[in-house]
Amino acid sequence: MPNLNIKTRILLFVVVFEILAYSSIVLFSNVYYSRALSEVKEQEIIQTFKSSANKIDHTILLMEQSAYNLAQHGQSLYLQHQKVNFEKDDLKLKFSSILKQHFTFFDLALGGGVWFEPSVVFVDSDYFGPYVYRDNKEIKFSWDLSNAEYDYHNQEWYQLGKQAAKNLQPIIWTHPYIDEAGSLAPMMTVDAPIILDSGDMIGMATVDWSLSSLTAFLETVKITENSSPILIHKASNKIISFPLQTDLVMQTTPKEKWVSSLYNSSSVTRFNTSKNLTLNGKLYDLYFLETTSGFILGFFSPHKDIDKEVRAVSQVTLFGGAIIGVTFIILIIFIMKHLFKPFDLVLSQIKGSIKHTAQDKVTVQKIVYDEQNEFTPIITELNAVYLQVNTHIAEINQANAALQNTQNELDKLNTELERKVETRTDELNKKTKEALKALSELQAIQNKLIEQEKHASLGRLVAGIAHEINTPVGVSITASSFVDDELKYLESKLQSCQLSKQDLVKIIADLKEGCFILKSNLQRTAELVASFKQVSVDQSSELLRKIELNTYLSDVIRTLQPRINNTSHKVSFESHHEEINILCSPGAIAQVITNIIENALVHAFGKHESGEVSILLSKSDKEITILISDNGKGMTSEVLSCIFEPFFTTNRENGGSGLGMHLVYNIVSHQLNGTINCSSILGKGTQFIIKFPINLTQ
């Protein structure tokens, strides 16, 4: 290589590059281009499938629309007959005209008719089913199937239509079958029930579709040179078209490997493939998809067909590339032979004009070139560039010195900036510590306020119970005074010997009544004290104990009765139908129920409204559910989203702390290990759903 001139080296480079380029083309053709061709062929196959599937689906839709339109014509003529009362021959003539006109312009159908229920059209006619069929290209009208011998009412296609009418289906298809009543061709029938506005089915319209035209169309479609179609009706598992095994046509699909691949991978409108399937002793690739109308359309292609087509295109590409490569090499050699003669001299002079100094600096000198050829303007311009390069080199040296000075200044500024950043960081850390301390103090205040809210709730409970006890105690004192007066009266009568039998009977009756009043009111007082004692102890304690939840909730609501009696509202409790014995913190449950009910009494209703708060208790295998709802004014979405936040209240002007519902949320979440959800509809009320496990552990 060192002994070769630049022209020879360039020529050698071009030849080597061309050989490498041609080798790359060969590699690309055999690997990537073949793969790309396979993908293009697969896209072509997919488009062929989609086109064929769309034709099938479109034909199905046309058949269904034709049946529906024919049913509408039949219903219209029936209603006209009910008004005019046609003669039987006149009505037959009208149906003949309608059917012939309908099927003359719809050549996709083999035939069809309108079939009525017994005695619907004429009382004396059990069979009234006008029918037309296609004989070559001629439409012929027939009355031959309206008799007891054919008995179309009991035919499978008619019974299927009646079932569709019961299920309110406007259209239903039969499974593929052989037309044993006429053409003996494979076909399918679409039924369209005729249903009056009253909901009664009076008959149905049918359109027969010959599957022979469909199979003939599929046999003209080719995805590869030797491909063969297969068409299966999925609902009935019947093979409609299969040229490779014609003995299976109109038979149920056999239990073979290629059949299972069809059903396992089939999904509506998704293209699927199954490779290397053996059929009739040959290896095939199966391409298939399921149409939206319920058919599985597939094509068996010999395994080597696509590879054969791809190889043929690749060979043409390789041959063309070889010819282009050889031609290009010859052309380059010829051009370089004539164009590179003066190049050696110019190249050597350019090399000699560039000098390196001892300080690794580069200088360029003016090129002396006495020849007058195509390189003369280039050398002239190059000398002008060299002059500019020398000027720029001097400017660069000056700029480098200035840049070094600037770098020194930047180093000083960076040092100062680092010092300032360190100072600011220390200040920020100090502020952060102060903020954390303030946050800790704020949380302590919040916890204190929550405890105060608990004690305030207990205080309200004590005040209410004291007021409630006053009534039975006052009645008891009055009753005891009455009994005392009666006893004194009895004593005076005895001492004066003026006590009559009538007086004794009256005094005894009054004493019994006084004792009864005294006893009942003292019992009421004892019950209130007992309920208050247990609930108040529970609210001030977080210890777990076993309780019967129905009874406990009744006690909690009883302690709230004084508070409830001061309002015009009503609180109802629906207990569970069986006992619920649970291990829990009763005070937590009492606090939750108390706060929610008091919250409802304060916020749920207007000033002059009477409302109701309902409490429903239920139990599943593992958890308790308490549903508390009211029929009040409800909440907006903005209020609902903030209801459990601390210090949020809509009643701050009346002393509301905003901690009641936050306390409820914390108790349910942490003490009861449960969940609470609130929903509300503005103007209709609010509902709380509380769920927690049956047994809690400390």
UniProtKB/TrEMBL annotation:
<dbReference type="InterPro" id="IPR005467">
    <property type="entry name" value="His_kinase_dom"/>
</dbReference>
<keyword id="KW-0472">Membrane</keyword>
<keyword id="KW-0175">Coiled coil</keyword>
<feature type="coiled-coil region">
    <location>
        <begin position="389"/>
        <end position="448"/>
    </location>
</feature>
<feature type="domain" description="Histidine kinase">
    <location>
        <begin position="464"/>
        <end position="696"/>
    </location>
</feature>
<dbReference type="InterPro" id="IPR036890">
    <property type="entry name" value="HATPase_C_sf"/>
</dbReference>
<protein>
    <recommendedName>
        <fullName>histidine kinase</fullName>
        <ecNumber>2.7.13.3</ecNumber>
    </recommendedName>
</protein>
<keyword id="KW-0812">Transmembrane</keyword>
<feature type="transmembrane region" description="Helical">
    <location>
        <begin position="312"/>
        <end position="335"/>
    </location>
</feature>
<dbReference type="Pfam" id="PF22673">
    <property type="entry name" value="MCP-like_PDC_1"/>
</dbReference>
<dbReference type="InterPro" id="IPR003661">
    <property type="entry name" value="HisK_dim/P_dom"/>
</dbReference>
<dbReference type="GO" id="GO:0000155">
    <property type="term" value="F:phosphorelay sensor kinase activity"/>
</dbReference>
<keyword id="KW-0808">Transferase</keyword>
<dbReference type="InterPro" id="IPR003594">
    <property type="entry name" value="HATPase_dom"/>
</dbReference>
<feature type="transmembrane region" description="Helical">
    <location>
        <begin position="12"/>
        <end position="33"/>
    </location>
</feature>
<dbReference type="InterPro" id="IPR004358">
    <property type="entry name" value="Sig_transdc_His_kin-like_C"/>
</dbReference>
<keyword id="KW-1133">Transmembrane helix</keyword>
<keyword id="KW-0418">Kinase</keyword>
<dbReference type="Pfam" id="PF02518">
    <property type="entry name" value="HATPase_c"/>
</dbReference>
<keyword id="KW-0597">Phosphoprotein</keyword>
